[in-house]
Fold this protein.
Amino acid sequence: MGRRFVAERRRDPYYRAAQDQGLRSRAAFKLDFLDRRFRLLAPGRRVLDLGAAPGGWAVVAARAVGRSGAVVAVDRRPIDPIEGVRRVRGEVGDPALAERLGAVRFDLVLSDLSPRISGAYATDHARSVALVRAAWQLALGCLAPGGTFVAKVFDGELVADLEQELGPRFERVDRTKPPASRDRSSEIYLVARRFVPVPGRGAPVAPGRGGEAPLYTVKG
């Protein structure tokens, strides 16, 4: 870890806020923003968190859905225990993963997967898109009617293709970039809402915390 990286991280208000508030990563602020804007989380909801390590999103989700909900966190890397969260060691794209998750249907599937960075933007963009497609294939089999799919992707020319693939199965697909995403980062999030398992048949989703004050605060 280079000195420059360490110095930048120490100056990062989101990193400092995560440390002060006992959060596992600065990524928690990204999910908090997405939740408030798009009404993702609410008590009783079932959440699947892909690419979950070290558990920043899973902590936020577990607190929001409460004991009446459920959170399953998946990563090929180990995740330290989180109260109210089932941890699954596995890799998205593995055909056996869906079977290990069981027959439960999730109201929300989150993908914060990132590729191994090569330094060649076209390559990294294509790898990022491929991860979204792998997450989407998994979500197709376990997303509840009316559910939401959220995925991080590196912005670029292939994102439009992803939107076209998701579009027919959802009532709405939006692009957004949380304030906690670093300015120099090309990451954006696709938020696809109201999943339609059978074309022409939707299902309502109960409102979440959209529009409410942030759960977590950041000081500049």
